[in-house]
Each structure stands twice: as structure tokens, then as C-alpha cells.
UniProtKB/TrEMBL annotation:
UniProt keywords, alphabetically: ATP-binding, Ligase, Nucleotide-binding, Protein biosynthesis, Transferase
Keyword Ligase (UniProt): yes
Family annotation (InterPro entries): Asn/Gln-tRNA_amidoTrfase_suB/E (IPR017959), Asn/Gln-tRNA_Trfase_suB/E_cat (IPR006075), Asn/Gln_amidotransferase (IPR018027), Asn/Gln_tRNA_amidoTrase-B-like (IPR003789), GatB (IPR004413), GatB_C_1 (IPR042114), GatB_Yqey_C_2 (IPR023168), Gln-tRNA_amidoTrfase_suB_CS (IPR017958)
Organism: Victivallis vadensis
Protein name: Aspartyl/glutamyl-tRNA(Asn/Gln) amidotransferase subunit B
UniProt GO BP: glutaminyl-tRNAGln biosynthesis via transamidation; translation
Reactions catalysed according to its record: L-aspartyl-tRNA(Asn) + L-glutamine + ATP + H2O = L-asparaginyl-tRNA(Asn) + L-glutamate + ADP + phosphate + 2 H(+); L-glutamyl-tRNA(Gln) + L-glutamine + ATP + H2O = L-glutaminyl-tRNA(Gln) + L-glutamate + ADP + phosphate + H(+)
Record GO terms (molecular function): asparaginyl-tRNA synthase (glutamine-hydrolyzing) activity; ATP binding; glutaminyl-tRNA synthase (glutamine-hydrolyzing) activity; transferase activity
Length: 479
């Protein structure tokens, strides 16, 4: 490839709030269409918008978490356009004075195709707050409009054209989502349309300074789709340029099933939205003290959390990555690790057992019957040799099903590990007597048979014997 891709992203993120941006209708997904509406979000004449304080605070949080400068004076503007998804004929948005500007986001680690990413920052031009339009659905020659979404607070995060590959775009999206989730700003559930992404992409020969003609790819509904679409577009544009053709500025859609982009419209000129300050809304001002107060409420971000898990809890980078991929899992582990003497083992149990069971049963970690305290207790019971690891799994399954404390289960079922050497010697003798053929093989020099005999002893002890003592005793009696 003799061209370099220049990629910028525009990401829309729905803000998690109780009510909509400028009215008191609930901000909720999945209700019957057009049941969460009122005269304000339906654009009736004579109604007045009242800004949602929580949404503005969350916009500022998003800005602080991405190292933006927070405007001390900003305002809402009317973006005029006529389309059925906005009953007012204009959208309340922000034009020249957004809440957040000039931020950045750090990329590092491995990309989508597991190649190492360059260690670099992606600039964030601006983050502004606006209202989401209604959702239009077109099917069978009929169109429907659901105004439940109209007026939901929406952040628009515009990046600088700093990305150079599909992997970088994917990593940027992943990082941004992580920040929005950790910051409590949005759940970013893409299936519910809470995070949506448009890509701007152009090619230029390596070494050239000027940008090529930019193509806009609209409404990519998953990060994977965004990655595929960027790779496809790079290939498509390179092919046109190679053949001596030139690019026209256009907007394209992405057909994920066909794996190709298609022309939506050619842009002859930029839209004239006739922005002007919304006369119904006061400017929004912040003092330094107010911004600092918000800064103090910011959570620890996943990057910092991962580093802490590695240094303080002795986890591998991989473990830390798995645990912080979901904010609730990270918080859950953090709590359990603080209660246990062996945080690394707690992490192992979560990664190899708990996450698997949660996935199988489709249960969220916060709704599961095992608590950070009971898992910490289980790990400590294994560590202090009250039970062995195999029995631990049995107890774990019981905890998952019933929510009982591990000590109670161990007591109830008589599962305490047998470490009494007399009792173990007896079971070992029984196992030796019951398996003369294998004992013969072991004595003839087949060391692998020992594992079989250990298994027989464990079986006879119903899994309760201390495995280290069993091995020692077997060797003693066989030698
Ligand atoms: Zn409303």
C-alpha cells in the first residue's frame, strides 16, 4: 500500500440520566413507541426547554476524563433542519462554544488484529451536548417515527484526524467506551443505540502533507463493523487512486452483510444549518472551583486500575486486562481482593470459574449469589488448607447456586480436608491393595502410574484428602 489513511471519528453517546435533556420525560429504552413524550419533546409551540443539570455535569465529566479544557462560558444553539425526526424543525445543540475542547486519548497495547499499536495520543477536537432526534424506521414502504428517543441527552465526541489504521480506530472506540462506562456517563450499549459512530476517511500518498478527499461513513453499529468498513474503504479508495481516478466528497453507508460500503449521497456543499443561540436557554457558566469539585468526583480509570492490579495484587497484564474489560467486574474483584490474603488466586477464580458461569447462566456479576466477601472466604479456606482445590470447585458451584457462605457449606457437607496422617496412611494402604497391577508397573519404573494411584486415593477419600500428603504417603509406602 503506497497510501496513508487519515481517519477521524465522530461518536455519539447517549448520556445516562433519569429524564430527557430539556423535559421531564423518562430517558428509557424499550418502551412502547411514543409513550415517553410530552409537549416539549414533541416541539409544541409555546413550550420552553429546561436543561438537565445531570446531563451537563456528565458532559463535563466526559471532558475531564479525556483531558479536555472545560469552557467557563458556553451556550446552547439551534441547529435548523427540517426532517421528521425532529418535531421542532431544529435541534438544540452547541455550535461555537461547546462544553469541552482540545482533549486527547492515549492509545497503547494491542489492536483488534492483535498487532502492537503505536504508543500515541488521538486528539479530541470537542465534546458537545445536544438532544437525540426521534428514531425513524423504514420497512415495506412505510416509515415510523418513535419520539421516545427525541430529546434524550446526547454527547457528540469529535476526534482529530489522527488515526492511521483500522486498528487505531478500533482501539480509540474501545478506549472511549471504557471511559464513558467507567465515568458513569453512559452504558454505551450499542445494540440499544447508546453509542453510534461515523468515520471520516481519506487517503494520501505517504509523505504528502495535504489531506485527500474525505469520505464519510455513516452509522456503523459495532466496533467490528467500523474496523471492517475502514479496511474496506482504504482498499476501495486505493484502487480508484491507483487507476488514476479521483475521489469525490461523499457520504457512504456500510452494509455489514455484504461487507461493502455504498453511496448514500454526494455532498455538493456543506449544509447551512443557520445556527444561532437558543433564545430560550441561558448560557452555562462554570467557575474554577466548580470544575475542580467535579474533578474530585472522577473515578479511577481502567488504565490506572490495571497498573494497580499488577503492582498491588500481583496479577499479570492479561489478568488485569480481562478484569477491567467490564467496570462492574473490576469493582467486584477490587472488593474481593481487599478482603482476601491472596488477590492473585481471587483473580484466577473469577477469570476461570465465575466469568464462565456468569456467561453460561447469563447473569450479571452484581446479581450473582456469590459476593466478593464469600469468594474471598473460599480462597482463604483453600489457602489455609481447610479444603483442597477440587473440593473448592464443588463448594463454589454450591455457592453459585444457593448463595450460602463457603464455611457453612463445608461444615454442612463434611468437606473438611483430611490432613490426619494416620487416616491418610490407611486410605493409601487400601488403594495399594486394591490396585496390585498398577503398583507392579510403578515398581517396574513407570512413574506416571503414581498419578493414577493418587486419583484412586482421592476417590476413596471422597476428594477430601490433602493431595500433597497423599503423594508423600504413597511414595513412602511404595518405596
Ligand atoms: Zn418530553
Amino acid at each position: 500500500m503506497k497510501y496513508e489513511a487519515v481517519i477521524g471519528l465522530e461518536v455519539h453517546v447517549q448520556v445516562r440520566t433519569a429524564s430527557k435533556m430539556f423535559c421531564s420525560c423518562p430517558n428509557r429504552y424499550g418502551a412502547e413507541p411514543n409513550t415517553l413524550v410530552c409537549p416539549v419533546c414533541l416541539g409544541y409551540p409555546g413550550t420552553l426547554p429546561v436543561p438537565n443539570h445531570e446531563a451537563i455535569l456528565k458532559a463535563v465529566r466526559a471532558g475531564l476524563l479525556t483531558e479536555c479544557t472545560i469552557a467557563k462560558f458556553s451556550k446552547f444553539d439551534r441547529k435548523s433542519y427540517f426532517y421528521p425526526d425532529l418535531a421542532k424543525n431544529y435541534q438544540i445543540s452547541q455550535y461555537d462554544l461547546p462544553f469541552c475542547t482540545a482533549g486527547r486519548l492515549h492509545l497503547s497495547g494491542k489492536g483488534f488484529s492483535s498487532a502492537e499499536l503505536p504508543d500515541k495520543y488521538i486528539g479530541i477536537t470537542r465534546i458537545h451536548l445536544e438532544e437525540d432526534p426521534a428514531k425513524l424506521t423504514h420497512a415495506g414502504g412505510v416509515s415510523g417515527a418513535d419520539y421516545n428517543r427525541s430529546g434524550v441527552p446526547l454527547l457528540e465526541v469529535v476526534s482529530e484526524p489522527d488515526m492511521r489504521s483500522a486498528d487505531e480506530a478500533y482501539a480509540y472506540l474501545t478506549k472511549l467506551k471504557e471511559i464513558m462506562q467507567y465515568g458513569g456517563i453512559s452504558d454505551c450499549d450499542m445494540e440499544k443505540g447508546q453509542m453510534r459512530c461515523d468515520v471520516n476517511i481519506s487517503l494520501r500518498p505517504f509523505g504528502q502533507k495535504e489531506f485527500g478527499t474525505k469520505i464519510e461513513l455513516k452509522n456503523l453499529n459495532s466496533f467490528r463493523a467500523a474496523h471492517r468498513a475502514v479496511e474496506y474503504e482504504m482498499w476501495r479508495q486505493a484502487d480508484i487512486l491507483d487507476k488514476g481516478g479521483s475521489m469525490k466528497q461523499e457520504t457512504r453507508g456500510w452494509n455489514d452483510d455484504a461487507g461493502e460500503s455504498y453511496l448514500m449521497r454526494t455532498k455538493e456543499e456543506a449544509h447551512d444549518y443557520r445556527y444561532f443561540p437558543d433564545p430560550d436557554l441561558m448560557p452555562v457558566t462554570f467557575t474554577d472551583e466548580e470544575i475542580d469539585a467535579i474533578r474530585k468526583t472522577l473515578p479511577e480509570l481502567p488504565g490506572a486500575m490495571r497498573a494497580r492490579f499488577v503492582t498491588e495484587c500481583g496479577l499479570t497484564e492479561y489478568d488485569a486486562e480481562v478484569l477491567t474489560a467490564d467496570r462492574s467486574v473490576a469493582a467486584w474483584f477490587d472488593q474481593a481482593a481487599k478482603l482476601s490474603k491472596s488477590p492473585k488466586l481471587v483473580a484466577n477464580w473469577i477469570i476461570s470459574e465465575l466469568l464462565r458461569l456468569l456467561g453460561e447462566e447469563k447473569v450479571a456479576i452484581d446479581e450473582c449469589k456469590i459476593t466478593p466477601a464469600t469468594l474471598a472466604e473460599l480462597v482463604d479456606l483453600i489457602e489455609n488448607k481447610t479444603i483442597n482445590g477440587k473440593i473448592g470447585k464443588e463448594v463454589f458451584a454450591e455457592m453459585f447456586a444457593t448463595g450460602k457462605a463457603p464455611a457453612a457449606i463445608v461444615k454442612e457437607k463434611g468437606l473438611v480436608q483430611v490432613s490426619d496422617s494416620g487416616a491418610i496412611a490407611q486410605v493409601v494402604t487400601d488403594a495399594i491393595n486394591a490396585n496390585p497391577a498398577q503398583v507392579e508397573q510403578y515398581k517396574a519404573g513407570n512413574a506416571k502410574v503414581l498419578q493414577f494411584l493418587v486419583g484412586q486415593v482421592m476417590k476413596l477419600s471422597k476428594g477430601k484428602a490433602n493431595p500433597q500428603l497423599v503423594i508423600a504417603e504413597l511414595k513412602k509406602q511404595l518405596d
